Amino acid sequence: MKIKVDKNTCIGCGACQAICSDVFEYGDDGIMDVKIETVPIEFEDDVMDAKDGCPVDAIKVEEN
Question: CB–CB of 39/23 below 8 Å?
Fold first, then answer.
């Protein structure tokens, strides 16, 4: 799976980072960014939880 954060939508609340800090981090602009665009299988469930927990639906997932 590949993921992206829509920087125009993200409000930087940090929910995704709290759920999956191995994949999400704050960028220099205070908005979330992804550390790894192609998600290792061991983090897929956490990434989906982070996507579902995003209050503004800023996390976009593309299945392989």
Answer: yes
User: So where are the chain's domains?
Assistant: 2-62
Rounded to two decimals, the pTM is 0.90
Retrieve residue 13's tokens.
């609340």
Specify whether the CB–CB gap between 12 and 50 falls below 8 A. no
Please state, in angstroms and rounded to a whole number, the distance separating the CA atoms of residues 64 and 29.
29
Helix, strand, or coil (residue 20): coil
Evaluate if residue 37 carries a pLDDT over 90: no
- Class in CATH terms, 2-62: alpha beta
Q: What is the distance between the alpha carbons of residues 21 and 45, in angstroms, rounded to a whole number? A: 13
